[in-house]
Amino acid sequence: MGKLFSIAILLLLFSTITPSSAKDGEHYSFLQSQKPATPPVRQKLSHLRLFLHDVVSGPDPSTVRVAQAASANKSATSFGTLVMIDDALTVGPEATSKLVGRAQGFYCFASKEEAGLLMSMNFAFTDGKYNGSTVTILGRYTALSKVREMPVIGGSGLFRLAQGYAQARTHTFNLKTGDAVVEYNVFVMHY
């Protein structure tokens, strides 16, 4: 009899419990499938050729060291150093070339063995057709390689749902100041 009573109580409890999000028979979920309002548009490939100006010298640098591990002073690769960037993006390699956006983000020295960085940045466009749009790049950057390739992992505005890759090549590097101009060829699939 005691077993039967326990089972009856359990059945009664389970039959009266409803999800806390349910009201009047409604059920809510974090995922809701939706059909596009318009027919899907084909992706297009855009090739962006830009020059990033990484300025570490002078009174107004665009690259600033914000953190450094105590062991970074002993490391030939600056392992453990974090740097924030807000670098100019121009159409040509000259500092006076037309400004089309900013490369904003960070890089950290992530390798003990070589000048290997983890870079995370947005190319935030401020001019022309792409004004207000961004391309997000995240990946490994081996500073001494002739060509560095990183994935494009997203974007916003006209680059919403972007994917692709970016190739970086050093255009100029000043050994005295540490300033550099890097050519970026970015190939982006977007809608």
Q: How would you characterize the overall build of this protein?
A:
The chain has 191 residues and is mainly β. It is 8% helix and 46% strand. Strands 1-3-4-5-6-7-8-9 form an 8-stranded antiparallel barrel. The chain starts with a helix and ends with a strand.
Going by helix content, strand content and strand pairing, the class is: mainly beta
| Series of H and E elements | HEEEEEEEEE
Radius of gyration, rounded? 26 Å
Main sheet specs:
8 strands, antiparallel, barrel
Count the DSSP helices: 1
Strands side by side in the biggest sheet: 1-3-4-5-6-7-8-9
Subcellular location: Secreted, Extracellular space, Apoplast
Signal peptide: 1-22
InterPro entries: Allene_oxi_cyc_Dirigent, Dirigent
Organism: Phoenix dactylifera (Date palm)
Helices and strands in order, then pairings?
Blueprint (H helix, E strand, L loop, with lengths): L1 H15 L27 E11 L8 E6 L12 E10 L8 E11 L6 E10 L8 E9 L5 E9 L6 E11 L6 E11 L1
Antiparallel strand pairs: 1-3, 1-9, 2-3, 3-4, 4-5, 5-6, 6-7, 7-8, 8-9
What characteristics describe this protein?
mainly beta, eight-stranded antiparallel beta barrel, 191 residues, 46% strand
